[in-house]
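Curious: explain these tokens?
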Amino acid sequence: MKPNYFRAASIIAGLAALMLGTTASAEPKHGIAMYGEPALPPDFVSLPYVNTDAPTGGRIVQGEVGSFDSLNPHIRKGRVPWQLRFLAFESLMGRSWDEPFTLYGLLAESIEVGEDGSWVEFTLNPSARFSDGSPVTTEDVLWSFETLGTQGHGRYEATWSKIKSSTSPSDGTVRFEFNEQNRELALIMGLRPILKKAQWDGKDFAQSGLDTIPISSAPYVIDDFQAGRFVSLKRNADYWGRDIPFRRGTNNLDEIRMEFYGDSTAMFEAFKAGVLNTMRETNAAKWQIQYDFPRIANGSFVKSIIPHERPSGMTGFVMNTRNPIFKDWRVRQAMIQAFNFEFINERLNAGALPRITSYFSNSRLGMKDGKATGRVAEFLEPFTEDLLPGTLDGYALPASDGSERNRKGIREAIRLFEEAGWTVKDGVMTNEDGTPFVFEIVLQNGSSENTAIINIYTQALERLGIFPSVSSMDSAQFRERMTNYDFDMTYERWGLSLSPGNEQTRYWGSEGVKNPGSRNLMGMESPAAEEMIRRMLNSENQDDYVAAVQALDRILTAGRYVIPIWYSDESYLAHDKRLKYPDVIPAYGDWIGFQPDVWWWEQ
């Protein structure tokens, strides 16, 4: 494996070029970048991180914890294998995972954007076909956008509300006009999945489950499945786009199979037995200690470490401020103080993984240490009176001495609770009315790591006179409760990219405080955060964009909504030695579009 120097150049080109519009002029182009021009020229042969000589054949068998009862990943109802959204459907443009946010032609052979960014127009590739051989038409595209925006999953609704009109001005072209200034909208439109309109005539799109296998234009089609047990995707031998530049060197495996298990232990045993032939490991200690079974020892399975340059994102235990006990930031800080990260990390990871320090840490988008300065301070200054302590003057997570008792952290937690009106009486944390500090931690079945973390954490909380209940449930119950924010504390992971944009509103916007189904699990309502998101979406240059993200990072981190755990700047993949991947690794590393997209089978 070697570093991708092409990737480094593309990031510089993508982020450093300063432009007033999404594109320099309104003319059809082969690709589009959020800032500047796409790194690849119009006559590019392939993405830079693929093997164009990769053979086809073989299979990959992946495991998932949980179950499923639907094959339509575009609706609100049902449990769907998450990979289907990316493997079984195509969009007008495809994303290069070697650039912060750049798209190249897929179903569309070109894109044109208004100089003021108020409209976008796509010209379809005349060769584009659905898996049944029928052509992809402008009628399919327009129907897909409207149906997803009005009946589909919530992820599509916000964008559809920003569309003033959708038309087909000429044969083979679709045009979308926007009702607001938002430089990212043109790119988002290029990533919407396209479905076959005729398949849904007379059917209720929003109610589909296992009875209807959606027809798409993707390289893979759903070949076989058993409800809650497995899904098998087969490579379409008649796939229309095998020779377009964006697809060369990708989709090499004949079969992608997903097996489902009740918990992570059963899934790992299946991998050791060879039922699965790939496993993604997130626990550093387990990677070091438990991957010494016979198939590794005899060389039939191998261990691969995949580096990346993504932001850390946020992973940890989120506190729901819809519950009044978590409204006070001092209480949330006390909960963070009581979490003995150094001890837990040593116990579970042999101390190998660094702690997440902010939502965008591990990247240039992350907040800087100490006091806010420059454009970041300027953006935050109008909200000074409303910002929590640490936002402007700097915030850092507490560190313990690594001992199990964590005396310093517990003392500070007690002090903060007292400031917030809570004291320990007769061994129980209570307020002035005598009401005990009680809450529920909700976990999904199957994660032994999260259970181990919470077991250690609740022992620490007991020393504060706090005795939370812990509820574990299956994936359907868990998702239902998350959708309706029916929890006090839970585990969550927000994966964040090198090009944050409109999705940030769904993550942190105030509409998610009451409206179900958002990623705003903490229930934060921050005009300052929403203003930083607005600035991100309308920045006219790279400096302002980065400053807006760094300011947002300060607001989120100093909000103390999540007890952060760890991240890794590399991914751990164990797999059959016959499963291969290219030497050149994209900037996003082991991310969407990596496994299985650019892997192949080699005897």
Remarks:
- The longest strand covers residues 59-65.
- Residues 1-25 have pLDDT under 50 and may be disordered.
